[in-house]
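Good morning C.,

I know you're traveling, so I'll keep this short. The sequence:
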Amino acid sequence: MPSVKLFAHRPMTGRMRSFPSIRWLALVLLGLALLLPSTTVAAAPAIDWSRWDHLAFEHLTVRAGLPHATTTAFAQDRDGLMWIGTFGGLVRYDGYRVQVFRQADGLPDNYIRALQAAPDGSLIVGTSAGGLARFDPRDNRFSTYDASPDHGTGPHILALAPDGAGGFWIGGQNGLSHLRAGLRTIERPVGTGLPANPAVFAVRADRHGNLWVGSGEGLYLRRAGAARFVRFHGDDAAAGPVLDEDVWALREDAAGNLWVGSGTRGVAVIDRQGHARVPPGLDGDAPAIQHRTVRDVLASPDGRLWIATDGVGVAIYDPKVRTLGTLRHDNARATSLGGNIVRALFLDRSSGLWAATEIDASRCDTRPTIVHTLDALALSDRHDATFDENVRSVYTDRHGTIWLGFNRGRLARVEPASGQIRLLTLGGAQQDQDVRAIDALPDGRIVAGARGLVTIDPVSLAIRPWSVDGLDARPILALRAWRDELLVGTYDGVYRIDGAGHVTHDRHDPDDPRSLVDDQVRNIAELSDGSVWIATSGGISILRPGARGFENLVHEDGDPGSLPQNYAGSVVELGGRIWVGTYGGLASTPAVPPGPHGYRFTVLRGHDGLGSDNVASVLADRLGRLWIATASGLAVYEPASGRIRSLGERDGLGARFYNHRTAALGPSGELLFGGLTGLTVIEPAPQARPRQPDAPLAVTMAARDGRPLPYAALPTARRSLSLDDVHALRLGFSLLDYTATDDVRYRYRLEGFDAQWTELDPGVPPAAAFTNLPGGSYRLWLQADIPGLHARTVRSLIPLEVRGRWYERAWVRTGLALLAAALVYLLVRLRTRYLLARADRLTQLVRERTRELQEANERLNRLASVDELTGLLNRRELMHQLELAHDAAQRTGAPLSILMLDLDAFKALNDTHGHQAGDAVLHSAAQQVASLCRKDDRLGRYGGEELMVVMPGADLATAAQRAEVIRSAIEAMEVDHGEHCLRLTASFGAAQLKSGERTHELIARADARLYRAKRDGRNRVAAS
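The tokens, ready to paste straight into the viewer:
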């Protein structure tokens, strides 16, 4: 093997600082180290890259068709369709289409509280004020049950749970009731041992036949075979308070443990022996709970517990290792949890976790992945607002430590085994410069290039400038320790620093064909034969040991075997070939030139499956595959089979954009790619996520001549669709796994009618449409192409029967043709006369219809901007008015303030007097506030019982003064409701717009003041 000399950093006189004269000692030590058995890698601890992962959520919002932003419940029916409850109706969702059901469609109430899919394919729906309903897919209609408090469910449904025998237990404001098997009869248990009409927030029948009830007065248990419930207190001092207060969530895990979520005391678990305890970090005081109501607990197949809270997101607890994590909304991350108020959790059949938040339905994939991302949350100290996660260089040293270079003079040392990350900041001339190159010197020191060179002690992390004449002020683009030299690539050629400290500068000379091919050096790679390939923006220069000058490879117009494009980057060896990433595709050539013409290249381009000709980086893994970062993302290429697969969201890939030649192998063969959003890590495993059975590719809606068919009548592979006298048929279909739906490619072909497959545009709800199908038997082929490491195709075959129409018979067609010919002359004459008579009438009719349309549009515009209950602006129009006021204030410099007011104890008033009383109070309060607003103020309903006043031209003092007037007026109000005279108060938060501040920041400050007023005792004004 070639000799290695130790690069040492010590002062020298002359042109530069150089290396020590005792290199022989370093050679001896290094030789001993190289001769030792290489047991370090084998003994290295396993690397848990998932510790830095952040679950990426997709969001189903009102923009996609939800009737209300706040979601409340989930269910997945027998066919795989998702049902989603909201404040504004019920949603059926197939991954693309949102179909909404409201009171006008037969629902007893638009506010959905609980959902359960029944074995017969129907759906049991619990509403907030309308009792229980059942959706029957045989006719797409709802039927309702007795909602009386004495004999039925009561109007306020809070929980649903299967009873294990085909029926359901129902928890509500009026206690416990039961829907018997057959789904027809409601019964009210009597003499059960439960308190009289307790509010039942949760109910669960466990695998042993025990029935658990979570109520407003604690946890109750009716053991299998027993007739009465008993209060379950538990035998643990910490668990007792959890079980004795209001219990909102009950869930049994795979081991048979029951998890109990309470109103303010956190979470307790009851094991199979009946012993209760509070797991560490899940008590009410814990940061993951913060005395918020635990609304749901979900046990995933891997044993983790997902805990939904009413205000601090989702806590994730792993009982095996007793670790606790949290999922919360982050305004800076579009893929974070949609909101921190989470009312329900659900795990679909594709291992997707759904979270019902106050602003959307969020879904993430819970399966493990070999693709990981170290982003700003992992790499920064979370307090550095100037941190830039753009990874410009990657290097793995001989100890398995990963070094990352960033913009603005930042570096990070990542210890994958321990999970430790240290940030370094360069000073002096390197400050705020991009760190584009990192390598290691033979003595173990790290050398980094920004504007000039620095060395870093890998243990102490001491940073020392390395002054080299000619390099101190130059941006460094590439570094490579080669033989006894350090090669430094710049915009001005290659600098070679030898072991004695001498510097040689190689540049391009247009008169010398063996000079450097171009001065802009992008990358330097050493190959197995000892040569160095220098990739530049003008081609490749090859430097061989002992040779003088360079061997150059460039693109030649008209020569398909030359380099495909001169801008080159990554260079790797694999399978006896050299692979070069260029801006013209991925080029490869045999490592040994095949003939007198030298290296001859073949090229893979975007149309071959790479996605783009712009190849940023290339890495070879230990399984003989090439991983390629392009302008379109990441792809993996198997040279043996010629197969190319693009990675996507299904594989856990979160990043799409990668920096040029910023790639390296990790300590265990991981593939590391640096990009604009951090470091992407791909574990060196042959497989990615565990393979699951394919989700069904199913017809999810059908319309015959514009009329939808009942869901139970939708065709399947075993149930054909028979049609008679149909003119237009439209079938919507979907792959029901709900994962990265925009990445799936669909097509269809009606065998017997279509000659070719019909390709559908990406992201468009897949559907097949046919008109005037002749009578006969058809087979509809549906196909979904799933990309990624496990790329595969899912197909479904749907039989169709179209009965021939009477007019399709031959003699009927002949007679109709003759009759048509006879009538043409008469029709033309009559038509001419008729059209002339109608011309004047049509002109008048157009005028009338135009006027009616204008009037209708005006009414629709008003309805779209007004809240139905309060008569105030709705949230959408309110935010529009705020944006207009914000733009005017920023433009003119006039003050702008907002008031956020929230009715105090409104939930208690609703629970005590009912939602009708709450609606009356909210309406009266809204009118009172409207009467006290200024002429230019804009008042609207922000959400629930929360109102917002936009006050153009008002400073903070004016806003606070107006808030105090409104507060006093509300405090003096009396609202008559039945036999009761209701009084209420409100809390206010006021904020004035700051220069350059955005609207959501202004709202956040006003909202924070509002919550400060709440915490300070309510019925007050807090200004910011």
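Safe travels,
E.
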